[in-house]
Predict the 3D structure of the following.
Amino acid sequence: MASSPQNLQELLEISTPQGVNLAWVLPGDAWLASPAPPGGRLLLLASAGPGVWAGQQAHMQAEPNPLDHLTLRLLQGFNLPEQQIFYPKPVSGSQEKGLLPPPLQQLARLTGEVAPSPLGPDLHLEYGSWFGLRGLLWAKLDWPVTQAQPAWEGACASCATPCAPACPAQAVKPGQPLDWQACSLWRQQGGCPHACPARKACHKGRPYHREQEAFHAKASLSWLQSHPLPKLPGKV
């Protein structure tokens, strides 16, 4: 068995070839509702940019939710002291009774490198919307906490927001959260099957490869179809 990583750099040396190339060390109490013991550290991991696709393809297996399973195997292999994996769960979608899902976006925003956007996905300082939060675990560690950047307000404040007119579902509106219902209904009716035009219109970051983008579009549509949104008054 490979030895456990002794610091964040060693952890990234293990994870990056498998397509998980970003990681942050957060205080153990950064997630207030965490069931973990006091102290320790939270490790938040992400995949970012088109360069991770080759490593993900090489390590994914033919199984449901292959990227979640890849990440889970990776996290289990770290074998850190007393580690507890909060995301992804061993069975996709499973959650301990009474425990809220981990607030991955809110935790990422604590780093100062991530900010909200009208696209739905947050924007990363370097990669824009072309990144995904993949894993969260707690371990009994004393690793230095990642130095938070000055709070980044995102690229949207000074942007002409070409994403809004590019959205065929009219779900993207400058300065507002994504209209998830409009987006979901549009996609379940066959719209945007392989890519998100609004996301591609954003000037921040380098887009995924076409095959990579189609993979995520298919996965997100599958999730939407299994988690239908309730209709709101005035919506059809």
Helices lie at 8-15, 53-59, 66-78, 104-109, 163-166, 180-188, 197-201, 210-226.
